[in-house]
DNA sequence: CTTGAAATACTACTACG
DNA sequence: CGTAGTAGTATTTCAAG
């Protein structure tokens, strides 16, 4: 009996590849699984198994491992913004009055409550924050601007960039 | 027998509510379904049915209707950026040299091919485009910046805003 | 450590009231 | 919409690579 066991099948996802690209460290099958699930996760496990040429139980185990490892953060339904009556997207750059921890904390707490706010990030450069907000149309954005954004705590300036055309908007990671 | 059939149970999602907020036009059950599926769509239909207090077939019919109506654009697995080795997010403002249709088209075609590019939008204001790009770290972003972004066609100026902290990043619509 | 085959439990789905 | 029945799937067990 040999001291080191040689794996005859394809090695499935090294558990701890910390210093290299985790996605490229996955084997071909795991990448195929992720590619599919990022595109359409409503597929049944047997159909997925057939696509990646694996038995259903083996496929299911891989999917569960990808979830437990945290690589798959979740499986969610995406709502079409236009169909939801929020076809307008605005990117908003925010500059705060003062750069104190309290000022930042207060703003962040309030910003998350802005209806339609999808993203809010602290950034380097000429702005303190970038937010993205979805609204119905320019009228409703004007209302949001006048009634909410201008009243966010500690704001010195906000600059709005209306999105005229969404070229690309994806949650998918290339594999 | 009466000529018009009166629905004794809650009315399920008016098919054509064009002039009002489509999300608010949904009944309580459809909203509960969407709330759940936006959070976790890996739930089984029977479990979902129990949550919204409906029989399984009725629940399934509603979910299918929400998909066919286009309100649910798809069901996808979300990959955790940090776990995928792309923990760094950069927002990039782009100004083009010339504002011609060819210039825009050429840029858009190239921008979508930038590895890690998650979003790309035409905007009003001092920039022509905003892009968001995910990379591993500042080193890999520097490489991307020097080797790809600076060579995007027709670019006069690009300004990068490094994201220091992601306060909010959601795909969820409030219901 | 993995895989796949078989058996069971559960679920999706259909027909109908 | 709900109940009941059927078809198909998820999930466990287990033997084997």
From TrEMBL, chains A, B:
Keywords: Activator, DNA-binding, Transcription, Transcription regulation. It holds the Pfam family AsnC_trans_reg. Gene3D superfamilies: 3.30.70.920, Winged helix-like DNA-binding domain superfamily/Winged helix DNA-binding domain. Residues 26-87 form the HTH asnC-type domain. InterPro entries: ArsR-like_HTH (IPR011991), AsnC-type_HTH_dom (IPR000485), Dimeric_a/b-barrel (IPR011008), Tscrpt_reg_AsnC-like (IPR019888), Tscrpt_reg_AsnC/Lrp_C (IPR019887), WH-like_DNA-bd_sf (IPR036388), WH_DNA-bd_sf (IPR036390). One of its GO terms (biological process) is response to amino acid. One of its GO terms (molecular function) is sequence-specific DNA binding. The keyword Transcription applies. The keyword Transcription applies. GO terms for cellular component: cytosol. This is Leucine-responsive regulatory protein.
């Amino acid at each position: 009996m040999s001291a080191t066991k040689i794996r005859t099948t394809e090695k499935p996802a090294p558990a701890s590849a910390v210093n290299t690209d985790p996605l490229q460290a996955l084997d071909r099958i795991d990448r195929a699984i992720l590619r599919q699930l990022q595109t359409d996760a409503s597929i049944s496990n047997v159909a997925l198994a057939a696509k990646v040429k694996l038995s259903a139980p083996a496929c299911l185990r891989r999917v569960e491992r990808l979830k437990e490892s945290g690589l798959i953060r979740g499986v969610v339904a995406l709502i079409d913004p236009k169909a939801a009556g929020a076809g307008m997207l605005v990117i908003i750059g925010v500059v705060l009055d003062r750069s104190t921890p309290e000022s930042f904390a207060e703003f962040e707490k309030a910003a998350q409550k802005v209806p339609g706010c999808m993203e809010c990030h602290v950034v380097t450069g000429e702005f303190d924050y970038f937010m993205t907000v979805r609204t119905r149309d320019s009228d409703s954005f004007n209302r949001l601007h006048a009634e909410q954004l201008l009243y966010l705590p500690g704001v010195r300036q906000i600059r709005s960039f209306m999105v005229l055309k969404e070229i690309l908007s994806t949650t998918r990671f290339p594999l």
